[in-house]
Amino acid sequence: MHLVALHGYPLDHRLFDPLVERASSGALGPITSVFAPDLRGRGQSSHPVAATHAMSLLADDVMGDVEVALGPDAPFLLAGLSMGGYVCFEFLKRHGARFRGRLRGLALFDTKASADDDALRAGRKAAIEAIRKDGIGAALTAMLPKLLARGSQGTPAEDLARRMVLATPPATAMADLAGLALRDEGFEVLSAWDRPLLVAVGDEDAIAPPSDAEAMTAVATRAPWVKLLTVPRAGHLVPLEQPDEAAAGLVALAEAALRG
Ligand code: MLT
Description:
By secondary structure, the chain is an alpha/beta fold. It is built from 11 helices and 6 strands. It has helices at 17-24, 55-70, 83-95, 118-134, 137-147, 156-167, 170-182, 187-192, 210-219, 238-241, 243-259, and strands at 2-6, 33-35, 76-81, 103-109, 197-202, 226-231. It has a 6-stranded parallel beta sheet, with helices on both faces. Helix 4 (118-134) crosses helix 5 (137-147), helix 4 (118-134) runs antiparallel to helix 7 and helix 5 runs antiparallel to helix 6. It is globular, with a radius of gyration of 17 Å. Bound molecules: D-malate. Residues 8-9, 82-83, 180, 207, 236 line the site of D-malate. The site of D-malate has 7 residues, from loops.
């Protein structure tokens, strides 16, 4: 089974390198490959930066990318971290029916189903202005302290997080922020979801804390299998900070998906 994994803001596909490695060494059980595309406007994405990266636009991009990368029939699990999770909600809303026969399970890492309130929207606006003025370094200053658990500081995970933020073109980060501010909530999608669901969160996640993860599992009453995984010594980047825990959660999800 494939895993399609969508990264967060302002990051890229390298967030999932530890899972890619585990899949290729057979350590992800039934998951034999990980497709982690770069979202629009960065890395190897074929989609150019737009003025606003609405979650619906990113979800439509992913739909096309999945068709090309996986072919027409292969079964897959869909995973998203933070902004990637918001993209998953739009993907299910817009393309869920199309992939109904193939999409066997959903994994949400360090994300939330609530939309931005006025204060968060004002924060996004200020962040856009800071990047316009000072470049991507402004995003690094704002985000890095919030991305990782205390114990991840000074580790290779922090180094990669820093490199991913700095590799994000400023126009892309600004377009992401504009799209994040406009996004819809995802609770309705989750309450309709009727396949296995993994919700994983770092216990030190300062952006989407465990209370957000609990709120998501609470509404997923139609899912036949739901696992809430709270990961010790992880912040907002569980697959990078504690890849073995993330891998164990995904293997359990894949096994539940195979049971049907
Ligand atoms: C992310 O990690 O994708 C962002 O922090 C999401 C957000 O700011 O809501």
